[in-house]
Design brief:
It is built from 14 helices and no strands. It has 341 residues and is mainly alpha-helical. The protein is globular, with a radius of gyration of 21 Å. The N terminus is likely disordered.
């Protein structure tokens, strides 16, 4: 017989699954592109669409390996890499589908890993991976600023914007480095204690889980202080994953033969991705960042001197790829869920 805890985890898993499924349906029903144009763009992408989908399998594999590196630092992990990859894909699918992103995928990953490594290790590893994922974004956005200054013509208006982006990235990097050195879970919960509506819950949570929060903060600090090799390996995997993601745009530009296949074209792709992702992440509270990413692609491609047609095409194919992997991720939730021991 299933224990109450197992039933509770199963219920949460099902709730997350149906939230994700509802988000996909809403996305399909509110797609601001006619079916005729959508199908025309899919046909235009041709075999490059398969290249884009395959690229993301590589990226998810890198994400899964980065998470596994973090997990192994806290002890033995009796789970196959294929299962880690499955949970990773489903976690990202839920992050894309749910408002405020991390409120979907991260709880799901904790639920799946708790029977394997225990609640504390599962929570700390998921928090560490989420931190690393966001931390790598700040470095990627900062890389975009440097590449723009090196390869794009100087404009005073853009220079002011780049300066603001750089300040934002340095501030984010500084905060994350402090978090890695001292831990951040206790500070996060104490911050929530000052927010109306969350104050009572946060205070009860801190009182009940004070010891666990301290241990999780200790494991967060240990990754950078005592396990620096694992820290830099996971950071490198996440950062170069962002750089590889630019190949998705590169493949699409080849369809238009935009400037030919050159190093500068790839630099343009990195810049488009960097500033589109920065703009889209500012709208993190919207499921699938609907509208934010399309607007980001439109502005970024225009800044690179490309036509609106190219920006729209990239955004549509990007959505098709995302919907494909969301569907795969949601389906995998129902395939061999991890059971309590």
């Amino acid at each position: 017989m299933c224990t109450f805890a197992a039933m509770k985890k199963g219920t949460i898993r099902n709730i997350l699954f149906f939230i994700g499924l509802a988000a996909v349906v809403i996305m399909l029903l509110t797609f601001e592109v006619s079916f005729r144009q959508l199908w025309a763009d899919i046909c235009r992408a041709g075999y490059w669409l398969f290249a884009v989908i395959g690229l993301w399998l590589i990226l998810y594999t890198m994400n899964a390996f980065a998470w596994l590196v973090i997990l192994r630092e806290s002890g033995e992990v009796n789970i196959s890499f294929v299962r880690i990859l499955k949970i990773t894909i489903s976690g990202f699918a839920l992050n894309s589908a749910t408002p405020v992103g991390l409120l979907g995928g991260e709880p799901y990953k904790i639920i799946e890993m708790t029977p394997v490594v225990g609640a504390q290790r599962a929570t700390s590893s998921v928090v560490l991976f989420a931190m690393m994922h966001i931390f790598s974004h700040f470095w990627f956005w900062l890389t975009g600023v440097v590449l723009y200054l090196l390869f794009m013509p100087f404009q005073s208006g853009i220079a002011i914007l780049l300066a603001l982006v750089a300040l934002f990235c340095f501030a984010g990097i500084y905060l994350f480095v402090k978090g890695y050195k001292n831990g951040m879970m206790v500070k996060l919960i104490r911050t929530l204690c000052h927010i109306p509506g969350l104050r009572n819950w946060a205070q009860r949570f801190e009182e009940t889980h004070a010891e666990s929060l301290q241990r999780i903060d200790g494991q967060i600090a240990a990754l950078m202080g005592q396990s620096s090799r694992s820290f830099y390996i996971s950071l490198a995997l996440e950062y170069f994953g962002r750089m590889m993601q630019a190949l998705e745009i590169f493949f699409m530009l080849l369809i238009f033969d935009a400037d030919g296949a050159s190093f500068l074209t790839y630099i343009h792709c990195v810049l488009i991705l960097a500033f589109t992702s920065l703009f889209a992440n500012m709208l993190f509270f919207i499921p699938m960042q609907m509208g934010g990413r399309e607007g980001g692609f439109a502005m970024s491609t225009a800044q690179m001197g490309m036509t609106n047609e190219i920006g729209l095409f990239i955004s549509i194919i990007s959505r098709v790829r995302e919907l494909f992997w969301m569907a795969v991720g949601l389906a995998l939730i129902k395939v061999c869920p991890t059971k309590d021991k």
